[in-house]
Amino acid sequence: MFEVHGFAAKDATSDLVPYTFSRRDVGASDIHIEILYSGICHSDLHQARNDWGNAPAENFPMVPGHEIVGRVVAVGPNVKKFKVGDLAGVGCMVDSCRECESCKRDLEQYCQVHTSFTYNGTEQDRKTVTQGGYSTAIVVEERFAVKISEKLDLKAVAPLLCAGITTYSPLRHWKVGPGQKVGVIGLGGLGHMGVKFAKAMGAHVTMITTSPSKGDDAKKLGADAVLISTDAEAMQKAASSFDFLLNTVPVSHDINPYTSLLKLDGTMVLVGALTPLDGVIGGSLMLPRRTIAGSAIGGMAETQEMMDFCAEHNIVSDIELVDMASINETYKRLVKNDVRYRFVIDMATMPKG
């Protein structure tokens, strides 16, 4: 075991404070990553405050963070993919059973036995609590880390480990590409990545938003068009015209107006809202034949594919770099959606005492 410095919520009502804890020593198939940057996901805030009711008391103190990038400083004797000095990233999970049908299909996020999430979770022993990336180092089995190209701006890579793969995976799974009309609903941390990926895949991309002021930003990100969802006339004109909708709205909302935008055999995939949605009008799915689906992050092979795609197309997140000491103020800004489009912590600012 070795000591690392981090920031943790001592309980669900507390601000984050400096916290020293231990990481395991490097095992035969492990890599030790010195964390250089850690992205801040809105779910960090929700979990630290137990907004979703999934954070038992025994998981505190909780060190959030599942958008982790850094440099490998040690490797176990059986490691094949990494060497000391490589750039590496860790996302939302650090282990799975590896034996179930989902794991054998490289879909570890859907492990049918137990997914070990990067924080607010447990290791495969179901007892050892996991701690996240708001810390100076992490040790992880090499399967659950991805290689990062030196060509990319490392600090802006961090959100790719959550916001990136969350949007890339459904676009890939539903085979988005040239000749398709794609709508991205909501321009935030997820939505801005959805626009970038869908455009790079060759689709015609429309940003669908309630805020006319976000139109210019959307076009700068690569959107071909903007549709204001509160404009009834514009929504009517766009009815039955989209092949695919990526719905990134993070809160409960009425999806029926968006469902009407889908053409025959069109699909809307939900990646943002974990909470209950308003009732769906069955007839809008039946006539014409439409599908509503959901998607969660991506498996490790697909996450590496995404990272390679980003290197090929020079895609990173739009970020604001913050220091570790400002984390509680940053969370307050996050509540107000005062960010374009992701916060990333410079871990060089971590207090060491």
Task: Give a topology summary.
Layout: E1 2-9, E2 16-23, E3 30-40, H1 42-48, E4 68-75, E5 87-90, E6 93-95, H2 101-104, E7 116-117, E8 137-141, E9 146-147, H3 154-157, H4 163-173, E10 181-185, H5 189-200, E11 204-209, H6 215-221, E12 225-228, H7 232-237, E13 242-247, H8 256-259, E14 262-270, H9 282-286, E15 291-294, H10 300-313, E16 319-323, H11 327-335, E17 342-346
Parallel strand pairs: 10-11, 10-13, 11-12, 13-14, 14-15, 16-17
Antiparallel strand pairs: 1-2, 3-4, 3-8, 3-17, 4-5, 5-9, 6-7
Helix pairs in contact: 4-5
How is the CATH topology of the largest domain named?
Quinone Oxidoreductase, Chain A, domain 1
As for the number of domains, it is 2
Structural class: alpha/beta
Name the CATH homologous superfamily of the largest domain. Medium-chain alcohol dehydrogenases, catalytic domain
Q: What is the first-to-last residue Cα distance?
A: 19 Å
Judging from the principal axes of the Cα atoms, what is the shape? globular
CATH class category of the largest domain: Alpha Beta
Proportion of strand residues: 25-35%
Radius of gyration: 20 Å
Write the H/E string, N to C. Answer: EEEHEEEHEEEHHEHEHEHEHEHEHEHE
Q: Write down the overall mean pLDDT.
A: 97
CATH-level-2 architecture of the largest domain: Alpha-Beta Complex
**Record field, number of beta strands:** 17
Low-confidence stretches: none
Helix content estimate: 10-25%
- Major sheet: 7 strands, mixed
Question: Would you mind describing this structure in some detail?
Answer:
The mean pLDDT is 97. The two termini are 19 Å apart. The chain has helices at residues 42-48, 101-104, 154-157, 163-173, 189-200, 215-221, 232-237, 256-259, 282-286, 300-313, 327-335; strands spanning 2-9, 16-23, 30-40, 68-75, 87-90, 93-95, 116-117, 137-141, 146-147, 181-185, 204-209, 225-228, 242-247, 262-270, 291-294, 319-323, 342-346. The chain contains eleven helices and 17 strands. A hairpin with a 6-residue loop joins strand 1 and strand 2 (16-23). By secondary structure, the chain is an alpha/beta fold. The strands form four sheets. Strands 3, 4, 5, 8, 9, 16 and 17 form a seven-stranded mixed β-sheet that branches. The protein has a six-stranded parallel β-sheet with strand order 12-11-10-13-14-15, with helices on one face. The protein has a two-stranded antiparallel ribbon with strand order 1-2. It has two domains: 2-162 and 317-349, Medium-chain alcohol dehydrogenases, catalytic domain (Quinone Oxidoreductase, Chain A, domain 1); 164-294, NAD(P)-binding Rossmann-like Domain (Rossmann fold), CATH 3.40.50.720.
